[in-house]
Amino acid sequence: MITQNLGYPRIGSQRELKKACEQYWAGRDSQKNLLSTARNIRKQNWQTHKDAGIDLIPCNDFSFYDQVLDTCLMTGAIPSRYSPVLAEEKNTNELDLYFAMARGYQKNNLDITAMEMTKWFDTNYHYIVPEFVKDQEFSFFSEKVVHDFYEAKEFLGFTPKPVIIGPVSFLLLGKEKEDGFHRLDLLDRLLPVYEQALEKLAAMGAEYVQFDEPILVMNLSDRERAAIKKVYENFRKKFPQLKTILTTYFECTGDNLKTAAELPVCVLHLDLVRCPSQLDDILKTGFANKNTILSVGVVDGRNIWKNDYEKSLTFIKKAVDALGKDRVIIAPSCSLLHVPYDLDLEKNEAVLSAEVKNWMAFAKQKLHEVSDLRKLADPEFSGDKEALLNKNKKAIESRKNSELVHNKIVKQRVEKLSAADAQRKSRFGQRQLVQQEQFNLPLMPTTTIGSFPQTTDIRKLRASYKKKEISLEDYEAQLKEETKKAIKWQEDVGLDVLVHGEFERNDMVEYFGELLNGYVFTENGWVQSYGSRCVKPPIIYGDVERKAPMTVKWATYAQSLTDKPVKGMLTGPVTMLQWSFVRDDQPRKDTALQLALAIRDEVVDLENAGINIIQIDEPAFREGLPLRRENWENYLNWAVNAFKVASCGVKDETQIHTHMCYSEFNDIITSIADMDADVITIETSRSQMELLEAFTSFKYPNEIGPGVYDIHSPRVPAVEEMTFLLEKALDVLPSKNLWVNPDCGLKTRKWPETEAALKNMVKAAGKLREEIKAPANI
Ligand code: GLN
Ligand code: ZN
Predict the structure, then answer these.
(1) Closest C-alpha among 265, 371, 251, 243 to residue 316
(2) What stretches in the chain show pLDDT beneath 50?
């Protein structure tokens, strides 16, 4: 029995690549140094695999920015707008072209936009979206895969396993940039390029080649399935000597399982963490009668918990019993790109206690787990199996039974929840009346989404408090000063519903996580989000409970400074869940309810403290959608329910807002309506209000604030631009349901542009109010 790994984090255990890239982009360091940093990371990674005793060690999983962008370069899928970059006389090289595609190019009188970015399946990693045209040409442009193979082979002294994104996933993850064709039509033109790459690899002695076809976990058409079959039949015919490994991950292959099982590949990899039932299912297809090797993904590549060896061994044993030990490979469930580097770097017990740390495994530890499992499954292994197993069992038991994890009171509260807890007292129509009376807001009230510019001073202030350089009193006094300025500033600008500004928050999830029981944080648990950007997700390890009010002090302080209503600002349960590493010992749904209860308590406390408008942000609501359609309904039900548990503890007079900033609502609009927030603010300015379509054709009943300006750019939109958008909104929405606000929070902006933009926004709202009062004679 052998082991393999599918891919490894590449940002460097100390985020060396991030730093080197950013230095290079800023023109502060040479390309030579960047290349050498990258080489060192690759070597360290290979050494880590070697030390762990992994047999099939990945190469070409390294990337300077993104593996899909790498594939664009490999296949010469370079959008024509970058031709001038290539033509630049100052010997523009492949890497500069590559970064231009990733980040845009503004140099030497050129101004070329970057390629689009989107989420990689259901992860928080973002990939660059390939762009295709009808007459798309491909060529074997970048030979990175060959170089990486060569380099790894030299370093390891044996043959590594190149990792390549499969041609069908590559095409399907991209986008047509013009009408009149489907990107899958390009397959016949794309395949020869893959063949050229394979030819070179084969000539250099490659043995195994891994093709990632994660698209196999999505709902596919017959044509798409047929394309996958065609590709791998073709590779088998042309390269009978290569051992192709086809990987799927992140979900069940569902109705694609039969296609996957029948592919003429040497190894098929399945994610048995996300979809344990797949093992039984594939054995039922007659898979055992074939020669294909099964790679069992039993070590979770998407989460940070220690593997339960006993449990994994039952899967491995089942596979071995059915297929024989030569037809089983042990592996993580997916690439380890989505977990942090190395738990050994967490040395500060005050941050992560030894007890909790002992329940976890990061990328490096996971490689050792894979290796341990092989030893344990091997009848000929001569080492001390007992000891290995016992040590693991002890850690698993300690987590299972720990008082840190289990909180009876929380569990009981969740059990006692009833339908009434997830229901406002009256229907929206009734609430709208009492709220109108209570707030007496002007028609089309103006507001913002919560955060105000996070200046360097504010960041410094929070950092120095964190480092204990200043006292709590000093810290809070300065935060109050900022809030005071923000309130005065909003009054001067003339906004109707004010916010406190979120100056105390570094991040909308971390801030609350730090105040809740059941959360821990790491010092080095970085995970790549996109390019050089990394995040350090909080970890939910136990029952979540609110220790004390979390925002009441800031909200009431802000309210004490003004007669206008101040909106309380919270992060919703689904977003808290979605942007953390979560427990794997209970369904996500249960954790969401615990979070919902904590937020519910905060909402009620805010209400009791006189804050009667409360916003519960759910920007990650859509992200939580399962990959396979057949699972959507179940998710939407519990996610909506969690939001309602969080928001429904209040009187009719209290106005609940929610905020979501993305631009696809059509397919989930019923659930958005079911959330029954009194007001929803959404991102619409970049699509010129187009996405309001979803709300109007559905006849969304509650109030809406479609964003009237894009906060992603420092540009200040003119009054007319915003009145234009608002008029568009008024064409389809009753004015009594309309709010006026930007697309999202303003924390990444600077004060001057924010002031100018919001002043214009207030003017635009005023102008429309006038027009509605005195309609022009037509
Ligand atoms: N209230 C948050 C803010 O304004 C919302 C952020 C978000 O939607 N991502 O910053
Ligand atoms: Zn937002």
Answers:
(1) 371
(2) 778
